[in-house]
């Protein structure tokens, strides 16, 4: 017989609960559940007390299904033969088939959730791998330059400081392909429009970018031409080296001039530069005067403004319509713009935000042609990771000390010994400082001729201090030799706000 749950004596059953839970006993007596019968021999004066005691025994306050006030609600039955004495849940406890169904449903959903999560992880991993391969495939490798440099290995300078890196950045002025609209294409010939030697300190606490003027007179070695012939060694305009023998010839010319071993190189074309500027959503500059230059496709008002890629390209290329029209002023603008670009990338957290970093990487990798040592995304990432903690005021830009060439005022020549001192600082991974030209030359603004001065000393931690201590040969504190003066050159750093100058 099923164990039906009854209500306590004298308390009416809840209709809804009765319908959901089991049937009442026919006589509504609490004795029927235990198989007992009322004893007729009990005296009438004790009947009320006995009934009350039996009711309290049948409906304890802690029994499952009991309600406040002694009301016992009916619940689902566990089925025939189910007895609470054998360890099974008592009737009305909410366990049994309903619990099993709930558990099965939870396990079912857990399995589907785990399957869905695994699918998402696989898709994410697959997407990440696809993006990596896409970016990696964007990079072009210049194997011919690497082979050319290997052939002349014996005449190349050796590296001096371990872990310091020197990277030659070359901006090509080729008018071939998509660059045709920027000028006449002379049969695909090209010269280096911009050349920058980027020195990364071994401790990665500073980065120095030294521009080499395109019109600087230099000793260009014999180089293999694209047509398999060879050029003769000659003293000529620096950017001819790129036209004679491409990247390898330019690298050998820079190494011959500076004595600095070039570890890696990158060539960037016009369109690649534009895309990188657009990828960071433009770069802000300030103009003292408006620009209207049809050759550079540039028309801008004066004041603060944000340049997109096309405008930025015109700004760094424009020459004759701004200032005195010299290549020197154009290099200054290029350095200032690159500093603003570096500041934009770091201040906006691009390097730490994957959604913002990807467009920059996509544009940069499409724009680059590199040596085999930098032709993978992993190699470039390691390079960028080493630079991302360099303070913006330690990302410095300057131009090699130069002056008008005596034989042709439209060309430049190195100023010595200032140029050799600068090259030695880079070669030996020693610190240097940059200040705006008006500060370097004094309040009168006149150029002192060499573009260099030494009025700061550098301590062991790389901190600059006034050169008012012991002079060369004297001793400092505790008999230690006085720090050597830090050469200071005309230039700027990435932290400079061009609109506050």
UniProtKB/TrEMBL annotation:
Alphabetic keyword roster: Membrane, Transmembrane, Transmembrane helix
* Pfam annotation, one family: LytR_cpsA_psr
The segment annotated Disordered runs over 1-100, 426-501
The positions making up the signal sequence are none
Basic and acidic residues compositional bias, start-end? 30-39, 443-471
> Which residues span the membrane?
112-132
Boundaries of each Cell envelope-related transcriptional attenuator domain copy? 191-346
Q: Which domain of life is it from?
A: Bacteria
Compositional bias segments (type: Low complexity): 9-23, 77-98
Q: Does the keyword Cytoplasm apply?
A: no
Similarity field: Belongs to the LytR/CpsA/Psr (LCP) family.
The name this protein goes by in its record: LCP family protein
